[in-house]
Design a protein that fits this description.
The chain is about 20% helix and about 20% strand. It is an alpha+beta fold. It is globular. The N and C termini lie far apart (about 50 Å).
Length: about 230
């Protein structure tokens, strides 16, 4: 039956209506109701946002809602691994509650320990690096726990410089997620909470010429000989 669709809209359909390919642009959001009625059970997420309001309260339970909805709903191995590990150890959620302004990067590696670096604007002026257990030393499917923590003082001018670099790199207008494949491959999640605004960006198995240097700089602030993106 001719539904009056354009050629690009027809690309959403296979011969089998239960295997509709949900490759729809944000500009076609008005057609979502038609697509859902045809059997599509995966709704497209916005490719870009300039930050979402911080939630007043966090969901109960350490493993509930580690990241905001834009990131948590992504079909990404990096997001899945980070959510499981951070949820298990109860690391503070950035997207909700009364946490200070925060910059946090989670580096997820398929064959090496995951590393989390966090900075908060508070009177203490410190940053923290958390390294998780090496996945090669754990049974299959085991969730790694924390292996080491180290803290370092960070002067306000240093943190101001990084915050400015994040702005200059176009973080707030960057795609929420870029990946070459949903499964496996190293990647990172960069979270920023500024006032009552929050955004997270995910990169998996792909280089980001603007934000990769920021990630390395955050590691350097905590540990000068720490891990670096390649």
């Amino acid at each position: 039956m001719d539904r009056g669709w354009s050629e690009s809209d027809r690309e959403l359909h296979d011969a089998n209506p239960m295997t509709i390919r949900c490759k729809i642009s944000l500009a076609k959001a008005a057609a979502l109701a038609v697509i859902a009625a045809s059997g599509c059970n995966v709704l497209p997420l916005p490719s870009v946002n300039s930050g979402v309001p911080v939630a007043v309260t966090c969901p109960s339970g350490a493993e509930a809602g580690v990241f905001g909805e834009d990131v948590s709903a992504r079909d990404s191995w990096v997001v899945s691994q980070a959510s499981r590990a951070l949820g298990r150890v109860g690391i503070t959620k950035v997207w909700c509650g009364t946490t200070h302004d925060t910059i946090r990067v989670i580096w997820v590696r398929s064959t090496l320990p995951m590393v989390v670096v966090s900075f908060q604007r508070s009177s203490s002026g410190t940053a923290e690096m958390v390294e998780f257990q090496d996945p090669r030393s754990l049974p299959p499917l085991a969730v790694p726990g924390i292996a080491t923590r180290r803290a370092a003082p960070v002067l306000s001018p240093e943190l101001d410089s990084v915050a400015s670099a994040i702005e200059a790199a176009g973080f707030w207008s960057a795609d929420v997620a870029r990946q070459t494949r949903p499964e496996g491959g190293d990647g990172w999640i960069l979270e920023v909470r500024k006032g009552q605004k929050y955004k997270a960006v995910v990169r998996q198995s792909i280089r980001d010429e603007q934000l990769d240097p920021i990630v390395n700089r955050l590691f350097d602030l905590v540990h000068r000989e720490g891990p670096r993106m390649r």
